[in-house]
Amino acid sequence: MPLFSGQASAAVRHLHLAATDGMMYLPNHNGYAPNTPTTGGLDQAVDGSDYRKVYIRGFCDDVDGTAAQPGCANMPAPIIDVNQGDDVFVHLRNIGNANPLAPVYPHTIRLHGLHVSTQNDGFNETSWEVPTCNDPVLNADPVAQQACLDAGSDVGTYYFKAQKPGTYMWHCHVEASEHITMGMYGAMVIRPRDRKIQGKRVYGFDKDRYDREYIVLLSDIDTAGHDAIQTDFDGAAFAGLPYGPKTPAEIAEVESYNFADHQADWWLVNGRAFPDVLLPLKDMAACNADPSRVGAAGTGDFEGCNGRAEGPPIGMLTGSNNDPAIKFRGKRSSYAATIEANWNERVLMRIINMGYQEVPWHIHGAHFSIIGKDANPYKSDDQKREIFTVHVGSGETYDVILPTSSLARVGMNATQSFTNGQGGGVNEFGFDWGAIDPNNVDQNLLDQWYPAHSHNDYTVTNNGLYPGGQAQLIHISNTIQ
Ligand SMILES: [Cu+2]
């Protein structure tokens, strides 16, 4: 029984993740509006705008431990969302690659920020790793492969007791210089034990009350590294090596790219570059379990689950709070990348940096406050400090709250531009403000659109084309559901 009314009993959760490879598309254009999906050529959207297809490693929802198919990697990986006090078992199944030309590796889960034992730490050099039964050696020996599967050698289980509420990240830690930037990362949220404040407060202290929450997961991609891994694998050399972990010399034998040469050319918010952040969330469930998107063997090319001109994944991990089958009081977390809120609401942004560069994250229109960092609340006075840029280093998380009441919506501030005939009509993202009525300027101020973006503005580009990359929009209105 709960100790007092409103306090939840801790749950025992079993979460299933599959590690594999996949494909994603990056907008290779600087059009202002996102393109619509197409069934046409592989690298173009229906309006002719370019997309850049890149090979990734990653994770997808394995549902019950059997659902995922090789090639299903979601970008970013599913969200782990649990409550303080929960006993969480994360089962990782390494299903190998869809691409026969890419290196085959073990994987782990590093629960970044959690106080876990060495044995549950995904730093495989001091703990352990999960190999796959889907590699060139075992694929050529069906008896040995079946024995590998029967023994469950391709599954490992991590345990943690959810302790401090806040915002975290998780990722693979095998050869992290390669596996992280290839896409093996996702967001993690722990909510307060008290049910009454789940989905309403980050920690339960002074200023951390909010009405809506968004995950802002920042990362970057060096396509040269992804291309090298896509076609790099020397299967003959691999087949000659002993089974199990490889030495540096053996790794060098099967791949060539040096990840110290990392130089990003795309920068992402929730796994998408602008303007694709504006697109609706994508349900990955059907794709995760569909082997038909895997291309012809030996080509290293297949369809994957992150399509061209498609929005970020919903982010649900079955068994988490964001699984609709789980009873949950608050609003569910997702990778929604357009921030929408009504006037006089407080918007929580859980900012996470999984990229290799520090990001000066800047929001137009109003100041915001940092109410916590790295799953620890700031002191009450510090929670009141208002800023307009937060520097988020790799491996850091910040919980910031934007009160929409502080956004500018005062007619007199816009009167001059309205007098000049500006500020009405349709903006370049397709939103229609309507005609300007000089006698009622406030009618044009009801909906407001602001950018939030990296202030390293060269990262607000797609392969050098501005605008693109690490930017999203904040839409404030009075009709947001
Ligand atoms: Cu890995």
N-to-C order of helices and strands? EEEEEHHEEHEEHHHEHEEEEEHEEHEEEE
Indicate the proportion of strand residues.
25-35%
CATH topology of the domain at 12-203 and 218-254: Immunoglobulin-like
Taking the sheet with the most strands, its summary is: 6 strands, mixed
Number of DSSP-assigned strands = 21
Ligands bound here?
A: copper (II) ion
Ranges where pLDDT stays below 50 over 5 or more residues in a row are 1-6, 37-47
Shape, principal axes of CA atoms: globular
Any idea what the radius of gyration is?
Answer: 23 Å
Mean of pLDDT: 87
- CATH architecture of the domain at 12-203 and 218-254, please? Sandwich
Number of helices, where a helix is a run of at least 4 consecutive DSSP H or I residues:
9
Based on secondary structure, the structural category is alpha+beta
What is the CATH class of the domain at 12-203 and 218-254? Mainly Beta
Percent of residues in helices: 10-25%
Terminal CA distance: 35 Å
Protein name: Copper oxidase
Domain Plastocyanin-like: 74-193, 329-386
GO molecular function: copper ion binding; oxidoreductase activity
Pfam families: Cu-oxidase_2 (PF07731)
